[in-house]
Amino acid sequence: MHHTFDSEDIIYSVLKYLKRPALDILWSKRSSLVSLIMRLPQDTLEIKDDTIHLSREPTPSEWGRLRINASRVRRLIVPDSDSQEALWTYRAPKLSVSGLVLQRLFEQFPPATLFPNLCAFGSHALRESSSDLSLVRLFMSPDWKSSCLMLLHASRYMR
Fold first, then answer.
1. CA gap 115, 143 in Å, rounded
2. Most buried one in 13, 23, 72, 92, CB count within 10 A?
3. Helix 60-70 vs helix 99-108: crossing angle, to nearest 10
4. Backbone phi and psi for residue 59, each to the nearest 5 degrees, phi listed first
5. Terminal-to-terminal C-alpha distance of the chain
6. CA–CA separation, 148 vs 48, rounded Å?
7. Is the separation of the CB atoms in 54 and 46 below 8 Å?
8. What is the Cα–Cα distance from 37 to 53, expressed in whole angstroms?
9. What pTM did the predictor assign?
10. If you ran DSSP here, which 8-state letter would residue 31 be given?
11. DSSP state of 78
């Protein structure tokens, strides 16, 4: 190893510098809200019959940590099953998020503030998280740069 990297301070500085862009890339595309909800502390969640429920109310700081990752999401859509993106998507066990969990989340942060960088949305991503498709209207924001993209994706999944 080069002598420049002998110092732990330098390595720490490099890692600290790369952390934010790496997390931005990691969270930029999501196919459901499950991975986001699973970022809450383990003792706040309970899984019954493949559905995520709250076992206790998360604290404001716990909701805040979830919000940090949500702000990194740019695309909340399920890739087409025949696309290259779908081939590389991790196939996690199918979980859904209870309506109460989503209700509490959206009471804390309306989707427009929870996902300030969202530019592509497909209603199928919500169907992966919850059976309550009335939540789609919460994601409609006049501030979107590409709202027509959202409508195209939503119509494709509403067959």
1. 12
2. 72
3. 90
4. -75, 165
5. 57
6. 37
7. yes
8. 10
9. 0.70
10. S
11. P
Residues 150 and 3: their CA atoms lie apart, in Å, by: 51
In contact, 125 and 31? CB cutoff 8 Å: yes
Q: Find the largest Cα–Cα distance for the chain.
A: 61
Could you report the per-residue pLDDT of 102-121, keeping only the tens digit for each? 888 888 888 878 888 888 77
Please answer whether residues 144 and 119 qualify as being in contact, where contact means their C-beta atoms are separated by less than 8 angstroms: yes
Helix (H) or strand (E) holding 32: none
Residue 45 bridge partners (DSSP) = 54
Q: Identify the H or E element spanning 30.
A: strand 29-30
Distance CA 55, CA 70 (A): 21
Residues in the chain: 159
Write down the residue that tokens 């919850």 correspond to. Answer: 130
Looking up tokens 């949305």 gives: 121
Burial of 31 (0-12, 13-18, 19+ CB in 10 A): buried
Please name the residue ranges forming H helices in the chain: 8-27, 34-37, 60-70, 84-87, 99-108, 111-114, 123-129, 136-139, 147-157
Q: Half-sphere exposure of 109 toward its Cβ, with a 13 Å CA cutoff?
A: 19
